[in-house]
Amino acid sequence: MRAPANPRAPRAGLTLIEMLIVVILFGMVMGTMMTVIRRQQAFYRSASQMMEVRSQADQAFGILPRDLRAISSIGGDIFSMTDSSVTFRSQLGSTVVCAKTTNVLTVPPSSRLFKRHRLTTWRTTPVVGDEILVYDDGEEPSEVDDSWKTYSITAVAKGAVASANACPPSTGFVVAADTADSWRFTVSPNLSATIAQGAPVRFGRKVRYALYEAGNGEWYVGYEDSTGAGWSARGPVSGPHRPFSSTAGASGLNFAFIDDAGTELDPSVPTNAEFVARIDVTIRGMTKNDVVIPGKEQEPLVDSLYASVNLRNRQ
Known about the structure:
By secondary structure, the protein is of the alpha+beta class. It contains two helices and 15 strands. The longest helix has 46 residues.
């Protein structure tokens, strides 16, 4: 028969050495886990920075190429250019000539469809200081004297007008109910006498895209436009990007102006503007902090996007 256990006998436990071993092992495991967690956090932070750099470049490329593609260098749309900026006539919209007097051009309404077509369209209503380009057939039956004539808008009006200025239903461009919604643009200089009813019309506004330094010290692709009230406040389109640099291939925004032969033109020569057949655009961004990429040295990541934009009306 087994003797009863002595309740006063000492219980078995861990020795001090065993406790030290447990603490050391636990510390090693936790240290390894923390190292893995730190590396993962650094990786995700780096990935987020890379995505932000690419996202800002994508944002600029969602706007710039579209605007540049509408430029006609032979039509005098480029006003000035540098390696980090370009000033040009941006297309606001189009319409047709409905009626005209000496210096007033009347066009169909922009708010209604006529025979399932909208003859007058614009992304923003033209204002005083904008330009109107009207196609003039000239007097010759051939195309020898055909050209686009440029006029500056000095007044904009809409509503019921005298019959001399109205867009009559007889033109086929409006119905009677639309006559009072015709748009009338007073222009300078006076309209050419050979501009015909139904002639194509384009609206333009002087705009500028440029790399600029904001008050926070960061560099952005900026946009501003010019009307009768002067230049608007410059606003950021995308960024921040790399700062301006005179070193080739280093600026956050770079324009290269190419002629028909594929030769890069000197942007500082004003007469070169009419020979531009293509504009190459490069956006460069750089992460603010070092990027952690396995197998590579930790350093800020430089990323870039490139687009080549062919201008219209080139042979």
